[in-house]
Amino acid sequence: MNTNLPSRRYPIGIQTFERIIKDKYVYVDKTDLVWQLANGSTFAFLSRPRRFGKSLLTTTLKSYFEGRRDLFEGLKIMDYEEEWRQYPVIHLDLSTCKGQGNAEGLREAILFEMEDLCSLYGVDKQGRTPGQVLSRTIKNAARQNGKVVVLIDEYDAPLLDVLHEKERMEGMKEVMKEFFQPLKACEAMIRFCFLTGITKFSQLSIFSTLNNIMNVSMMPKYSAICGITEEELTTVLKEDIAMLAEAYKCSPEEMHTLLKRQYDGYHFSGRGPEVYNPYSLINCFDQKEIKNYWFESGTPTFLFHQMQRFGTDITQMDNIKASESGFNRPTETLTNALPLLYQAGYLTIKGYDRELGNYTLGIPNMEVRVGLTEGLLPYYAGLEQEDVLQGGAQKMWLALRDGDIDRCLGELKAFLAGVPYVEGFKEKLSEAATKEGFYEYTFYLILSMLNVYVQTQVKCSTGRVDMIVYAPDTIYLFEFKVKSTAAKAVRQIEEQNYADRFATDPRQVVKVGVNFDIDTWTIEDWQTLKD
Fold it and tell me: In 223-288, where do the E strands start and end?
């Protein structure tokens, strides 16, 4: 016997329920929720961030509707299901259709994705549109049983890359609209229809007459259908925490705290449980290392384009107040990037005022904060991650941690003076560089990338503090100036009594005035005052 084989098998890159069960991979049982979903609304839509288990959920539904009772033995669904009736299942994954350059390319990609279904149900796709092929497939499949199940995973994948290109987007949306039309026309033949995706496109433009689809994305009873809850982590995955703690030479309790800070923090309804990112958590257990797996698996360039397009204030992403319609509106009617940030998983629900019906949104955890900041550096500050890390960012944080603000700002000044900005960025932002906000963004991004807790434009009774940086033993109050003096900046902190809000905090408060030189793009001078 090979004693070096792992005692636990993790489904890395495996999204097929049948394979996970048959090959005895680690599985967190969600089948009670799967049954409720399958026996609820006939048409349902679920939005979740990428890599959050949507495909596994879809293949679990596929096995259920195929009557594969053998796969579900010992799982929660056995307490609910008695008949195990078998249905023809039309299962499509439109993530295979992304990256198409135009509408014609998208049509061909969808038809290619349906090739096996056409062979299975005797459909000739020659000369037909995707919608016509889908219609014929549903009708032929329904003849077997009277009813058919339609599962469409990642329905919006073909459109995400062209969100910022209006002309291409319109043509490709028309292809998708035509493709989805048969779902309404064939309603009488459909036992269950389920769509997953990241974004919420309005029913009028994408789903056309499909106005009876139930959006279950924010329903409390389904909020944990994707993701891993605290209870699941400490029971089903208790052994995995212990093995990871042994690798890190710490206690299971300490490891639990580290995992919570790194991967927890997602809420998908105002009253639902908090969940961990399943992709990152499983990869962490498999590799025995805490890393930013979610960001390593893909760069959300479409989101960065939209944030830049709408001028998103990245320094205010930790405490956003919004109504549900403000962050859950259809993609076509966007007036800011907030809905995309929430739907894509870069913001999540942090609080809910039931009386007012308002939500508080914020960044979920350390993994998202660090990864998002790294990705935004080129867009908001013209910097590349490696340049920042090699240019003294970590030295800046060590100086802050040690209470040496002069050393910190000296490192920042040297870094800004010699940084190789992305080509053309200085010219592009020459006007912005004369404003305090540009330097505020730069400082914020550098510190956030190192997971330093930073707040900007913090309201006080007498005004707003430009930036507050929290170190273990010190609180730094920053006031930034351009074409002025550091002394004037410190005087403003003093005169406006910005430090009063920390009168009962045991940490030392340090007031920091920073004046920037727009000709050299770096710090001209600074001044500090300790309470």
Answer: 228-229, 275-276
Burial class, 214, CB count within 10 angstroms (exposed 0-12 / middle 13-18 / buried 19+): middle
Q: What domains are defined for the chain?
A: 17-222 (3.40.50), 228-296 (no CATH), 301-362 (no CATH), 381-530 (3.40.1350)
What pLDDT digit, counting tens, does each position of 293-317 carry?
Answer: 998 877 677 788 888 888 888 888 8
Please tell me the predicted confidence (pLDDT) of residue 423. 52
Q: Which two tokens stand for residue 170?
A: 């319109």
Cα 340 from Cα 328, distance rounded (Å): 8
Secondary structure (DSSP) of 434-494: GSHHHHHHHHHHHHHHTT-EEEEEEEETTEEEEEEEE-SSEEEEEEEEESS-HHHHHHHHH
Q: Cα–Cα distance between 113 and 91 in angstroms, integer?
A: 10
Degrees (nearest 5) of the Cα angle 215, 218, 221? 100
Q: Contact at 8 Å (CB) between 477 and 498?
A: yes
Q: Do the beta carbons of residue 241 and residue 259 sit within 8 Å? A: yes
What is the maximum alpha-carbon separation in the chain? 82
> Which tokens hold the place of 14?
């495996």
Cα-based distances in Å from 267 to 21, 150, 356: 28, 28, 19
203 pLDDT higher than 60: no
Give 77's pLDDT tier (boundaries 50, 70, 90): very high
pTM, rounded to two decimals = 0.85
Long-range contacts of 303-309 (CB under 8 A, 24+ apart): 303/337, 303/340, 303/341, 303/344, 303/346, 304/375, 304/376, 304/379, 305/163, 305/164, 306/163, 306/164, 306/334, 306/337, 306/340, 307/337, 307/341, 307/376, 307/379, 308/379, 308/380, 309/164, 309/337
Helix (H) or strand (E) holding 522: strand 522-530
Instruction: Supply the mean pLDDT for the chain.
Output: 88
> pLDDT tens, 27-67?
999 999 999 999 999 999 999 999 999 999 999 999 999 99
Do the Cβ atoms of 217 and 197 come closer than 8 Å?
A: no
Task: For residues 217 and 203, give the distance between their C-alpha atoms in angstroms, rounded to a whole number.
Answer: 15
Rounded CA-CA distance 115/133 in Å is 10
How far is 180 from 456, CA to CA, in rounded Å? Answer: 45
End-to-end CA distance of the chain: 67
Q: How far apart are CA 485 and CA 300, in angstroms?
A: 39
Tell me the per-residue pLDDT of 354-376, one tens digit each, with 9 for 90 and over: 888 899 999 999 899 888 888 88
Contact 409, 526 (CB under 8 A): yes
Helix axes 405-418, 436-449, angle to 10 degrees: 110
